[in-house]
Every structure is written in structure tokens, then in C-alpha cells.
């Protein structure tokens, strides 16, 4: 099966709306939480709740999907339940209520993407380098959402943020209905256990690198918008800077199918980690310079675009056959789950010590990931 037989626009549509929801959540949810009166520690804890569910949820749903082969059933059910439970945000604003809603809705929301990723790769089969041409529509969705919501917030209250998120969740569910279940297929049983794969030194090292990289993103994903607002930038500018980073990411996705065969996964992974260390260091000390912020955001092309495209192909090569769903779930749970949750939590406690200190620690974390990659991670054997 080739990419010409894959339902390109139906697959792309899901990515479009899924990452549009992230384009609302990541830049503007902390601002919404701040409007409710929550301080840095509480915001860090609440953002960590969403990330923490990714530690457990993707692995539970991945196990179910790998044993039933019905990945799109998981995606549709998770999308619908995420819509229903997120609606609870309109019925309370206490810390406990908001935390409860975020925990329950994200448990189902976080079930969807890893299984959809596995579905996409099943369509692509031997042409996995073409993944980026489909995934880039997610980046486009993020850009459009970040720009539009940032513009609206100049004249509208922060209460439009949960409304926009609910609309995105409904659209995610609707687009999940048009991708056929047969696209996932039932995967054959592998004799090798998934734990024997994880115990391989190069795989274990890669998983730890993924964890550290996302940990280093904690201050950025949790406090970047608040950081910019505190330094006098408007919400339109904030949304535009978020969008700029993802536009750079789109540019990378357009050429990744050429870069990976030319340079290899290992070199590309080290490059992305080096740029991450540089990015966090500059962000901590040069926030007052818009020109520097512009350059820093272009670095998102490497720290997310290249990193994600490379890691997801590593995972696809290491976790074969029946382990595909759990392999993608492991990637999600260790990066955006464990790494993201701990990163958000730590940044919430560190933020009061100063942004420069917080981002310096983030730079040290990604540098450690770079050293581990240099020493232990290699190109996978195809």
C-alpha cells in the first residue's frame, strides 16, 4: 500500500483539529487559569494534570488497541468522551473542580493521538518518511488557532478559551468518524515481548532522552505566554510568536522526507537537542528583545519538528507488529506524559526563583539528553 491509497485528507483533517486544540490549550489555557485567580504553583500543578494522564492513559488504550486491532474505535470513543467531560469546565472554577475536569477529559483525549499515529503509519507502510507531509496539517491547525484566539483575546475575556477548546474537541470527534476502521487492521502476534524491546540499551536510552527533552520544555509550555505578557507583549504578539514557531515546524515537516535519508536519524536527533539547549538559554536572558524572540521561536522547527519526526520513526522501527500501538503510547507517555508533567510541575515551583534560572535548568536538562544520545543512541537497524 502506498501513500496514494491512503485517505490523505481524512488523516490530515484529524491532525488539523487535534493540534488546533493544542493551539488553544498550550498558549492560552495558562492565561485562562491566571484569570481565575490561580498563582504560578497552581497553574504548574493544573497543567501537570493534563500531562500526567498521558503517563497512564495511552498505555491502557494502547494495550486494548494492540489486542483488538480496533484503533479507530479507541480514537472515536476517546474523542467523544473527551468532549463530554470537558464540558464540565463550565460548571465550576474552584481548584479541585478544574483539576478534576482536566484529569478526566485528558484521560480520554490522550488516548486518541497515539492510536491515530499507529493508524497513519499502517497506511504509509514502507513510506514512513512521508509521515511529515500528513502531520504538517496539525501544525497548520495550531498556527491558525493560536493566531485567531490571540487576536480575539485582545477584545474578549479569557472565558472564550474553554469555549474554543470545546469546539475543537467536537471537530476532532467528527473527523475521527470519517477514517475507516479497516485502516488500522489487526496486527499479527510477535513472539518477542514488549519488555525485551524496552530493555535493549539503545531503546532504553532513547526513551530516557525523550523524557528529558520534554522535561526541558516544561517552562516553555507552561509559562511562555505569561512570561511574555509580564514583559509587556500583547496577546496578539504572543499568539503570533506561538504561531511562528509552528510555521517553522511546518517548513521542517515539508523537507523531513529528504533530510532523514540524507543525514540519518541519529544526527538529526542530536541537532534537535543542541538547538533546544541553545533555545532555553537565550529565552531566559533575552526576552526583552523581540528580534531574539523571533529567532528563538524559529528554533521550534528543530526542538519539536525535527525531534518529533525523528523519534516517532525510531519508535516505529523499534516497536514492530503487535507492539505498534503500545510503542506509540510509550512515546506519548514518556514525553508529553511523564516528561511534560514533571516539567510543568517543576517549572511551577521554580518560576518564583526567576525565569532565567528556570530556563537555565531547562537548558541543562536538554544538554544531558544530548550527551546520552551521543553515547548510547544509534540509527535503528532497518
Account of the 3D structure:
This protein is an all-alpha fold and 382 residues long. The chain has a single domain (3-376), classed as MFS general substrate transporter like domains (Growth Hormone, Chain: A, Up-down Bundle), CATH 1.20.1250. The chain has helices at 8-35, 40-68, 71-86, 95-109, 112-124, 131-152, 160-176, 194-198, 201-216, 218-230, 235-263, 265-285, 290-298, 300-318, 324-350, 355-376. Helix 11 runs parallel beside helix 13. It is globular, with a radius of gyration of 19 Å. The two termini are 19 Å apart.
Name of the CATH homologous superfamily: MFS general substrate transporter like domains
**String of helices and strands:** HHHHHHHHHHHHHHHH
Mean pLDDT: 89
- Please mark out the parts with pLDDT under 50 across 5 or more consecutive residues, or reply none: 183-187
CATH C-level label: Mainly Alpha
What's the domain count? 1
Amino acid at each position: 500500500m502506498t501513500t496514494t491509497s491512503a485517505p490523505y485528507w481524512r488523516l490530515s483533517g484529524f491532525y488539523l483539529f487535534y493540534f488546533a486544540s493544542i493551539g488553544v490549550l498550550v498558549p492560552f489555557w495558562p492565561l485562562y487559569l491566571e484569570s481565575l485567580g490561580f498563582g504560578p504553583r497552581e497553574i504548574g500543578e493544573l497543567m501537570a494534570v493534563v500531562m500526567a494522564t498521558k503517563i497512564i492513559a495511552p498505555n491502557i488504550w494502547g494495550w486494548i488497541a494492540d489486542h483488538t486491532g480496533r484503533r479507530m474505535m479507541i480514537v472515536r470513543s476517546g474523542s467523544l468522551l473527551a468532549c463530554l467531560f470537558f464540558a464540565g469546565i463550565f460548571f465550576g472554577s474552584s481548584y479541585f473542580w478544574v483539576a478534576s475536569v482536566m484529569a478526566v477529559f485528558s484521560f480520554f483525549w490522550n488516548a486518541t493521538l497515539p492510536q491515530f499515529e499507529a493508524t497513519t503509519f499502517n497506511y504509509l507502510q514502507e513510506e514512513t518518511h512521508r509521515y511529515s507531509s500528513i502531520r504538517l496539517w496539525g501544525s497548520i491547525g495550531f498556527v491558525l488557532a493560536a493566531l485567531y484566539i490571540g487576536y480575539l483575546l485582545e477584545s474578549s475575556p479569557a472565558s472564550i478559551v474553554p469555549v474554543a477548546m470545546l469546539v475543537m474537541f467536537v471537530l476532532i470527534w467528527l473527523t475521527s468518524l470519517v477514517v475507516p476502521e479497516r485502516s488500522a487492521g489487526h496486527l499479527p502476534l510477535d513472539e518477542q515481548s514488549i519488555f525485551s524491546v524496552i530493555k535493549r540499551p539503545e531503546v532504553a536510552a532513547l526513551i530516557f532522552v525523550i523524557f528529558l527533552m520534554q522535561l526541558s520544555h516544561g517552562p516553555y509550555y507552561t509559562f511562555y505566554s505569561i512570561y511574555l505578557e509580564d514583559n509587556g507583549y500583547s496577546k496578539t504578539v504572543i499568539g503570533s510568536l506561538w504561531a511562528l514557531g509552528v510555521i517553522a515546524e511546518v517548513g521542517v515537516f515539508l523537507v523531513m522526507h529528504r533530510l532523514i535519508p540524507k543525514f540519518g536519524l541519529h544526527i538529526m536527533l542530536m541537532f534537535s537537542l543542541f538547538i533546544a539547549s541553545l533555545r532555553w538559554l537565550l529565552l531566559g536572558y533575552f526576552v526583552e528583545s523581540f528580534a531574539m524572540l523571533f529567532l528563538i521561536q524559529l528554533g521550534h522547527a528543530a526542538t519539536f519538528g525535527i525531534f518529533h519526526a525523528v523519534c516517532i520513526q525510531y519508535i516505529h522501527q523499534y516497536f514492530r507488529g503487535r507492539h505498534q500501538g503500545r510503542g506509540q503510547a510509550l512515546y506519548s507517555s514518556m514525553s508529553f506524559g511523564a516528561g511534560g508533567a514533571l516539567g510543568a510541575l517543576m517549572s511551577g515551583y521554580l518560576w518564583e526563583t526567576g525565569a532565567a534560572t528556570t530556563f537555565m535548568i531547562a537548558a541543562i536538562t536538554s544538554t544531558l539528553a544530548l550527551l546520552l544520545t551521543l553515547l548510547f543512541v544509534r540509527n535503528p537497524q532497518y
